[in-house]
Design goal:
alpha/beta, 5 helices, globular, UspA, Universal_stress_UspA
Length: about 140
């Protein structure tokens, strides 16, 4: 049996880590290959220059988030992936590149105007070419 490819985007919040709990409830270790993903969103405005320190710090934070999640998935086949950019775009790109079977993520916590503009979760659900599971709080 070929393992299902599961993409789990994490933003470092406790809420996003619930995706891992759901993954463990839904799938046995032998059934899936997991890619844990974190996207560092570095905003550049007015030709602002980003220092190497900023990039290095963002990379370290991203690695820390993924390492925390990795500890919860002992025994699973897991890859880690860090990206820079807009989270939804990077998640969709990675899912397509890896030919992911499933994306598991948590629902948005945004309210008001941020919700109207559109959350990462909403954009992924609308544009993914694969099954997206949204874990509750």
């Amino acid at each position: 049996m070929e393992k299902k490819k599961v993409l789990v985007p994490l933003d470092g919040t406790d809420r996003s880590m619930h995706s891992i709990d759901w993954l463990k409830k839904l799938f046995e270790k032998e059934e899936i290959k997991v890619t844990l993903m974190n996207v560092a969103e570095i905003v550049i405005a007015n030709d602002m220059v980003i220092s190497n320190d900023t990039v290095t710090r963002a990379q370290k934070e991203s690695e820390d988030i993924l390492d925390t999640a990795l500890k919860k998935l002992e025994g699973y086949e897991v890859d880690k992936y860090c990206a820079f950019g807009y989270a939804a775009d990077e998640i969709l790109r990675k899912a397509k590149q890896e030919e992911s079977d499933i994306i598991i993520m948590t629902k948005s916590t945004k309210k008001g105007i941020a919700r109207m503009i559109g959350s990462v979760t909403t954009k992924v659900v609308k544009n993914a070419k694969t099954l997206v599971i949204i874990s509750p709080e």
